[in-house]
Specification:
The chain is an alpha+beta fold. The protein is built from eleven helices and eleven strands. It is 39% helix and 17% strand.
């Protein structure tokens, strides 16, 4: 279930080839992206189509990133979710599934040999496309037929019949507009809170933010959970964690105290505790194990 940032980093990396340098020319990775037009662009960040990705490992630990996606797998066999400790298969995903916003890490296939089409929503903006409040999708991966009946199965079959990738994007855009445009509605209060949390997670004060919005804390938390999937406090922690691992990735020499302060953590202990909760690793362990691909750590 690789994201756009993962695929772009790998695709542009001079050290990566689909199989080996000897046969890369015969088996190139295909990666294309598409940003939909308005009004879909208010909610969908991008589409991705890829195939031919062939890393050495088979299982990634995927870290919470605040995103929601719908994944269309063009292979007939299932993709599995694995137990984080034993790496045994614990859930099978078939053909099309949705992955809600996560507060915990998850072990997933690395995308090896897969051919997939990904609908990646803007942060907190997937709610018009789901038939249930987004808090019921948090930390869950659900087969599409349980949510939308056969709608996405029909889309998958339609996309399989289209050879040109650009036309696959157009077909997916038309499908989403046809089935969900009537649900397109923005909540200015939640959208403002999301934007502020994402823009300055190191400075935001949720109590003051709530006062500025004007709703009671209980009502605002309920609205936020129904649209985004989790509470504002939990989402802020994820965005701070994301800022931290981004700084780690960009730093030539890591200053742990500086990173914890830059990302808005109360102190070093809170930084380490949150980091281990979201990744399963201490910051030092993560630094040793990471492979240059944000949010994905090879584990099997």
């Amino acid at each position: 279930m690789p994201s756009l940032q993962l695929l772009l980093r790998l695709f542009l990396s001079p050290s990566w080839t689909p199989k080996s340098r000897a046969d890369a020319a015969n088996a190139p990775m295909i990666l294309e992206t598409h940003i939909p037009c308005f009004p879909l662009a208010q909610f969908v960040d991008h589409f991705v189509y890829y195939e031919g990705y062939n890393p050495e490992h088979t299982i990634d630990r995927f870290l919470p990133d605040g995103n929601t996606e719908i994944i269309i797998d063009f292979d007939d066999g299932p993709q599995y979710i694995y137990d984080n400790q034993t790496l045994r298969e614990i859930q099978a995903c078939h053909h099309v599934w949705a992955s809600g916003v996560r507060t915990e890490y998850i072990s997933i296939p690395s995308g090896k040999h897969a051919a997939m089409f990904i609908i990646a929503f803007k942060k907190g903006m997937a709610y018009p496309f789901f038939p249930l409040p987004m808090n019921e999708m948090s930390d869950r991966v659900v087969d599409a037929d349980l949510l939308w009946g056969n709608d996405f199965a029909f889309l998958r079959e339609h996309l399989l019949g289209i050879k040109e990738i650009a036309l696959k994007f157009i077909a997916a855009e038309k499908f989403l507009l046809q089935h969900f445009q009537r649900n397109f509605a923005l909540n200015p209060s939640v959208d403002y809170a999301l934007a502020e949390i994402i823009r300055r997670p190191d400075q935001i004060n949720l109590a003051r933010l709530n006062q500025k919005i004007g709703y009671s804390p209980r009502h605002f938390i309920r609205m936020f959970k129904e649209q985004v999937g989790i509470t504002p406090k939990a989402y802020l922690k994820i965005i701070r964690f994301q800022k931290a691992i981004s700084e780690i990735e960009e730093s030539k020499q890591v200053n742990w105290t500086g990173i914890s302060q830059d990302c808005g953590f109360y102190d070093q202990a809170h930084f380490i505790n949150d980091f281990k909760f979201f990744s399963g690793f201490t910051p030092e362990e993560y630094l040793r194990r990471k492979n240059g691909v944000l949010n994905y750590v090879p584990v099997g």
